[in-house]
UniProtKB/TrEMBL annotation:
<keyword id="KW-0832">Ubl conjugation</keyword>
<keyword id="KW-0863">Zinc-finger</keyword>
<dbReference type="Pfam" id="PF25790">
    <property type="entry name" value="BCD1"/>
</dbReference>
<keyword id="KW-0862">Zinc</keyword>
<comment type="function">
    <text>Required for box C/D snoRNAs accumulation involved in snoRNA processing, snoRNA transport to the nucleolus and ribosome biogenesis.</text>
</comment>
<protein>
    <recommendedName>
        <fullName>Box C/D snoRNA protein 1</fullName>
    </recommendedName>
</protein>
<dbReference type="GO" id="GO:0048254">
    <property type="term" value="P:snoRNA localization"/>
</dbReference>
<dbReference type="GO" id="GO:0005634">
    <property type="term" value="C:nucleus"/>
</dbReference>
<feature type="compositionally biased region" description="Polar residues">
    <location>
        <begin position="1"/>
        <end position="22"/>
    </location>
</feature>
<dbReference type="InterPro" id="IPR007529">
    <property type="entry name" value="Znf_HIT"/>
</dbReference>
<feature type="region of interest" description="Disordered">
    <location>
        <begin position="1"/>
        <end position="31"/>
    </location>
</feature>
<keyword id="KW-0690">Ribosome biogenesis</keyword>
<keyword id="KW-0597">Phosphoprotein</keyword>
<comment type="similarity">
    <text>Belongs to the BCD1 family.</text>
</comment>
<comment type="subunit">
    <text>Interacts with FBL, SNU13, NOP58, NUFIP1, RUVBL1, RUVBL2 and TAF9. Interacts (via HIT-type zinc finger) with the RUVBL1/RUVBL2 complex in the presence of ADP.</text>
</comment>
<dbReference type="GO" id="GO:0008270">
    <property type="term" value="F:zinc ion binding"/>
</dbReference>
<dbReference type="GO" id="GO:0000463">
    <property type="term" value="P:maturation of LSU-rRNA from tricistronic rRNA transcript (SSU-rRNA, 5.8S rRNA, LSU-rRNA)"/>
</dbReference>
Length: 282
């Protein structure tokens, strides 16, 4: 009876491969373990398996994840705009950024399709305001209802008295302050309006203190400007208003978006408010 001798080389090589592969797998597992913390950042007794996308806290289980959120108030949602160093940037970060850009694109596209965002406010009140402003040679335009300036506008027109009560914003750039005044009669002069803010004795004490630079300045060293609407951002121009004239006279033959915004400027800064040229004046 003949005996068959099997080649041992193949058996040995396959066994060696298994040993080698086994050691490689163990090494890889070791590397993966090194990448995470050795223990859970919540209970401290188990090996960490998860990492919070928001604050990077390590945890070992769902109960520990919940405890972490309850204790810290963490939302668990990754800050999509947070800075990521190049060494930490991986495929998941790239995918997350790509999805964030997709969401932004969808939102922007939706806004352009939304009639409420695009269309100016058209109501009985706005039509009445625009019509009566037109009779006073004032072009009054309105923004869509999604704009803050549209929502806060309190301008009112008294039909019987034929009088505008304007929502008025006053900006004092040299004191980094701005004030909003409601229902200002268009018969008041700018001087009367400013008295409540920068008069040495007749203004409100707290306001007077805040606008000290203006209070200390001579009245003829103060000018009021209003931005010319409809110009490009790199070609901003202003109307210079007459402090001695009424608000109605100053707004005549000008365009307003919702309500007047007046810049009260000290003499040293007049040059920062270039005027609209005579060729373009209304």
């Amino acid at each position: 009876m003949s005996s068959v001798i099997l080649p041992t080389t193949h058996i040995m090589s396959s066994a060696e491969n298994k040993v080698e592969n086994g050691s490689t797998e163990e090494e890889q597992r070791g590397k993966k373990r090194k990448m995470s913390l050795s223990s859970c950042g919540v209970c401290g007794s188990e090996e960490a398996k998860y990492r919070c996308p928001a604050c990077l806290t390590h945890s070992c289980s769902l109960p520990c994840v919940k405890k972490h959120k309850e204790a810290s108030g963490c939302s668990g949602v990754r800050n999509k705009t947070a800075f990521v160093t190049l060494s930490q940037f991986d495929e998941m970060t790239l995918l997350s950024d790509y999805r964030f850009l997709e969401d932004t694109g969808r939102f922007a596209n939706g806004a352009t399709r939304d009639n409420l965002v695009q269309a100016p406010r058209v109501t009985v009140k706005s039509k009445k305001l625009a019509s009566n402003a037109r009779k006073m040679n004032i072009t009054l335009r309105f923004l869509p209802i999604t704009f803050t300036k549209s929502r806060e506008n309190s301008t009112f027109f008294l039909t019987k008295e034929k009088l505008f009560l304007w929502h008025l914003k006053l900006i004092f750039p040299q004191s980094s302050s701005e004030f909003t005044q409601r229902r200002v009669s268009d018969k008041q002069t700018l001087k009367q309006i400013l008295t409540a803010y920068i008069h040495p004795t007749e203004s409100e004490p707290v306001t007077r203190q805040k606008l000290k630079m203006y209070v200390q300045a001579r009245f003829d060293h103060v000018k009021v400007f209003m931005k010319v609407e409809g110009r490009k951002a790199n070609a901003v121009r202003y109307h210079e208003l007459d402090i001695e004239k009424s608000l109605r006279d100053n707004l005549s033959y000008k365009t307003l978006i919702e309500y007047p915004v007046l810049h009260v400027v000290l003499k040293d800064h007049w040059k920062d408010y270039p005027l609209k040229g005579p060729a373009f004046s209304n």
